[in-house]
């Protein structure tokens, strides 16, 4: 998958890694003024293609590991919590933990979003932190953690396609070929699920819905990170998702009272690590890397999930799931190929030949 480096991305040695992207319009133009009256960032030269700081690499690694553990954690606490209450509890914990970091910064800088700046935040807050989590939680009541992680892996393909069209990050032919291969892998997983029960088919469809919601959210979130630091952009989305899930509050209280201590601790873990920390490290990495390139790194999640699930829950995906997952990984490998540039026509040659 060939993408172009985004102009104005922060340099790896920038002293403010969470600051806005370098290119910004003057204060008297729409989008040029920074929240709270702060001055727009100065223009910095674009980094070399593929260049990323060690801190950015660490953010990607943390995100992959913690998101992989989330699939296992959801599966582990699933018997004690319904999909909606689990989402609300996870977001509530994350809102408190991340709020301890973000709120002092917001009070100091008065950097709350204004006017239209709220629209993309509301969008990814509802779709990603709300809808994605509810759909995934429901899916893992029907599928094992490894299979769910494999199915969610259609998300990087969707992100790459939308990033190529909307964010102008490139749209090479190998991306199309790899996408078709990856989708065929999803079809294999769905076929194997359909041979077991209709509940598994519903789980597959819920995972695909979650993947679509996450993919759209990544595209929507990318421009927000040009104006707000990663932690703030994440906390805003978490708060929006939590508000959307408030109708589950009564059910959450009842299920918390009946849940065993390990399940309650598991809920806290999901809120602190895969949500507050991992979504922030993801946002930070997304502020440095093209959306399509970054999304491809999440193909490391299923293998990590399968390993954790095997160690913690003793779950191993079916043979169909493993075959389909390998096809998905082969698909993303194809998307990483770069098309060779065509040689310039020589004098006297026929370009149409």
Q: What would you call the shape?
A: globular
Helix content: 55-70%
The number of distinct β-strands equals 0
Alpha-carbon distance between the two ends? 28 Å
With helices defined by DSSP (H or I, 4 residues minimum), what is the helix count?
13
Largest sheet: none
Global mean pLDDT: 78
Computed Rg: 21 Å
Could you tell me the strand content as a percent range? under 5%
Low-confidence stretches: 1-51, 348-353
What is the succession of H and E elements? HHHHHHHHHHHHH
Topology:
Elements: H1 54-77, H2 83-109, H3 118-139, H4 145-152, H5 155-166, H6 173-194, H7 198-224, H8 230-244, H9 249-258, H10 261-288, H11 291-296, H12 301-312, H13 319-335
Helix pairs in contact: 1-4, 1-10, 1-12, 2-3, 2-8, 2-9, 2-10, 3-7, 3-8, 4-7, 4-12, 4-13, 5-6, 5-7, 6-7, 6-13, 8-10
Structure description:
There is one protein chain. This protein is mainly alpha-helical. It is 65% helix and 0% strand. It is built from 13 helices and no strands. Helix 2 crosses helix 10 (261-288). The longest helix has 28 residues, at 261-288. The radius of gyration is 21 Å and the shape is globular. The model is unreliable at 1-51 and 348-353 (pLDDT under 50).
Summarize this structure briefly.
With 353 residues, this protein is mainly α. The chain is globular.
Keywords:
mainly alpha; 353 residues; disordered N terminus; globular; disordered C terminus
